[in-house]
Design goal:
- By secondary structure, the chain is of the alpha+beta class.
- The chain contains 3 helices and 4 strands, in the order βαβββαα.
- A hairpin with a 4-residue loop joins strand 2 and strand 3.
- The relative contact order is 0.26.
Length: 125
């Protein structure tokens, strides 16, 4: 068993779930998060933290093969996210809207360069 991020995360990308995950199994795309099925320990602590109710057990009907495959595929491509950050700007208005799968972005999250990961001799962004 594993947990799966489903459609309602698209264009919301709340990250409350990331803060509570004991194994850091969330990965971040441009407009949603996914869970790596081989890293998830099935604890379920992330489920009640998601304001969009976008995390379900793989035994629930909403966790279709399509969503299982999407989570597995993009967890291998996207960067790991281990700390909470602000949701997408229109998250509250997007939360609960149906038909968002067509708006899914396969792109990884943009990493924001900080002084901590910039070479000393590089000019600031």
């Amino acid at each position: 068993m594993t947990y799966v991020v489903i459609e309602n995360c698209i264009k919301c990308k709340y990250t409350d779930c990331v803060e509570v995950c004991p194994v850091d199994c969330f990965y971040e795309g441009a407009n949603m998060l996914v869970i790596h099925p081989d890293e998830c320990i099935d604890c379920g602590v992330c489920v009640p933290e998601c304001p969009a109710d976008a995390i379900v057990s793989d035994t629930e009907p909403a966790a279709t093969q399509e969503w299982l495959k999407l989570n597995s595929t993009y967890a291998d491509i996207w960067p790991n996210i281990i700390a909470s950050k602000a949701p997408l700007p229109d998250a509250d208005s997007e939360n609960g809207r149906e038909g968002k799968l067509t708006e899914f972005s396969p792109e990884p999250a943009e990493e924001i360069e900080t002084n901590a990961n910039r070479d000393e001799d590089s000019p600031p962004p």
